[in-house]
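[SOLVED] Need 3D model of a two-part complex

Original post:
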Amino acid sequence: MKIGTERAGNEEQSHTSRYLAQFLVSARLDEMPEALIHEAKRSILNGFATAFAGCSDAAMERLVKTLSGFSGRPQASLTGRKERFDVLTAAFLNAVSTNVFDFDDTHPGTIIHPTAPVSPALFALGEHRPFSGRRLLEAFILGVELECRLGNAISPGHYKRGWHITSTCGVFGAAAATGKILGLDKERMVWALGNASAQSSGLVETLGSMAKSVGVGNAARNGLSAALMAGNGVEGPGRPLEGERGFLKVTSDSPNLPALVENLGSNWELSRNTYKPYPCGVVLNPVIEACLEIANAPDFDASRIQSVTISGHSLLRERADRPTVETGREAQVSAQHAAAVCLLYKASSLNEFSDEAVNRKDVLWLRKKVKVVVDDAAMVGAAHVIAVYTDDTVLEATVKHARGDAEYPLSDRDIEEKLRDLIVYGRSGVDPEPIIDAIWRLDQIKDVSEIMALARL
Amino acid sequence: MKIGTERAGNEEQSHTSRYLAQFLVSARLDEMPEALIHEAKRSILNGFATAFAGCSDAAMERLVKTLSGFSGRPQASLTGRKERFDVLTAAFLNAVSTNVFDFDDTHPGTIIHPTAPVSPALFALGEHRPFSGRRLLEAFILGVELECRLGNAISPGHYKRGWHITSTCGVFGAAAATGKILGLDKERMVWALGNASAQSSGLVETLGSMAKSVGVGNAARNGLSAALMAGNGVEGPGRPLEGERGFLKVTSDSPNLPALVENLGSNWELSRNTYKPYPCGVVLNPVIEACLEIANAPDFDASRIQSVTISGHSLLRERADRPTVETGREAQVSAQHAAAVCLLYKASSLNEFSDEAVNRKDVLWLRKKVKVVVDDAAMVGAAHVIAVYTDDTVLEATVKHARGDAEYPLSDRDIEEKLRDLIVYGRSGVDPEPIIDAIWRLDQIKDVSEIMALARL
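Solution:
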């Protein structure tokens, strides 16, 4: 079968699962561009960075406590923590810490956080059955490819309806990636996707609560279990994705099948991945930068503000118009909160999105003055902010592309610095430098369990 | 709060999750009718019966093999097997064995198999934290109530779209039931439902393959984990069911909210439960009885058949028009196969729906002659079969209500006999009599782990 044709034929579309499985089974790192492999390292490094922040979050503590009573042998480690768990549970918990603050990576268009379900599943498996960094990179790139192409095929309707796309698509990414490591043949890879399809879940309603992390953790855990089951002969349906009652048609009103297969092996979704400078929903990045611009103007005085108006694409209002927030987690998807803390503190780190910050009197006071409006002409990723003083003085700022966007990506050094900062935030005391060094050298590492040995306590 | 009002008010519908949680937390076995409690015992007995058959199925063997590498401490047992697993894994595996042949119970209208996700989760928890049979019955009835009311609220669109409703609703039933045992308060019960909502999955596309069992096993496992997490403070959204992007609206185009709350505490869904006499999709019951009637006629000769036409409700064709089958599992949802074996062997036990039976020459020959047509006037649950000999002789039979229907239920003795037969089929060698006796006495048993001690090897 020829992979990477510019247009996929009818056969590819009527047997999409088999076609994709063949691609996953046969694709090789040797044939992938250097820049793509480097992007994989950036994604993985960014994933460890956010896991170091999330590893001591309350949701993580409660999930660790719950699952520690039922975990199997101590096969695998947790980033920034001392506990050991069985491989499936470790995959769950590291996916949780990676994504709990939504500070991880973002695939533009779908808003999938691609790394959280895939990388933790691979590193957990790597502590149980050692393999090389090159194999990890290969499997990671392929898992993200499937995960994000599925997202492309069902966006925007899938998320809009209420599916938490990181979880629903992530389970397939984790299954594909770990299936690649397990050396599944084409038929078993289709089964792995089928076993993943039986476990795909996650609702947007859970965002802003700890239950979100249950969905994301399961994407990693269940993707890995789907592949392990397939490896042991647990058979799935022949067309889990494209079937009449398969994943695509059930979770999308108008799935775009060609998006799954066109330019497979030549256009890589991971190369479009983006990394966040701020610990918020990505739609808030331009809001934050516009507010920081206003706050950093000479003689700015937040106490004089009578109103703040944020205008942007409808997606901004849909995802982040949240005037009332009670927890740090909700604050991460609140445009009102983001504007208030940036204007008050000229900062936008995890400290400004903590449970404590949410209830500060000055934040409560300013948050109430902020409105979000839709500008039909605005592009996704842009924002315009107008602050009006009580004397009617108007301050405004426009951001067309925020830092972290595809057009304005974080540099390698930015991501390293993010990891250093987030280790401080998460208080594990882990030394960042050996991890940074090891991830940049991932393609030379013989046994990926070395990296978890550096990341755990 | 008043429970059991004839019509629920607006408040109940706008905060359905809280209203249901309050009901689950406050409802007591003392206030439930005797007949309902007896029906719970019948359901549980029938669930053990089918688990004794499924415990040695190939899907079960492969799942046991996969999960045994990652299970925690040996806290809980498997029906008909010798292995011990952690509580979560045992819940998964016993749900699989209960449902793997689709020979378990059926809630009319939704076609949910209510017991498989709920009872195994409770018995697994009961081996870890002992509680009484009365508490188990109470929690079981409540779990099934929630599970089936959710099914009512989203039927028929949910299943028709492709959701495997036993799995998608079962996870909530398991969460509610085990949350009741854990003594969750109202707020934590809402969280348990939220943690379940993040894990609700299962596709109709997987039916006929082993991947179906992955979904059903997860319903039990993840429902239990959802409750355990809530008990440890893992917070969920406030409106996981009725929220804008909550379970009901995401998985149904027109959810019927009143169906969730009306007559709560007075109309009980479990009292409508039905039990199968044949190991097939329930839509096949009337097909089987009509074919058996034809086959048992004097001088019947299957070798003379030139065609068989089955007519029934559109649901029959939708679920079971499957002329080509390759496995016993597919045969269970194939009207063609069911007709062929009944006409050839005058029998319809698990032996007639095995992988081996599927490939017998005579079965292949006759299956090809069977057609399924829709009769717009036919009721769900009815079937008309016409067999025509090569000499144009016509044989026909009509079944309006098959055995096992609500109108023609299996007796207590029928269910006992089913359990005895299925222990023989599953070859565990377990003695059925102490189990039958213990389940009828469940409301007098102090520690439900006694029952698993009788059911395991």
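Edit: DSSP finds 22 helices and six strands in chain A.
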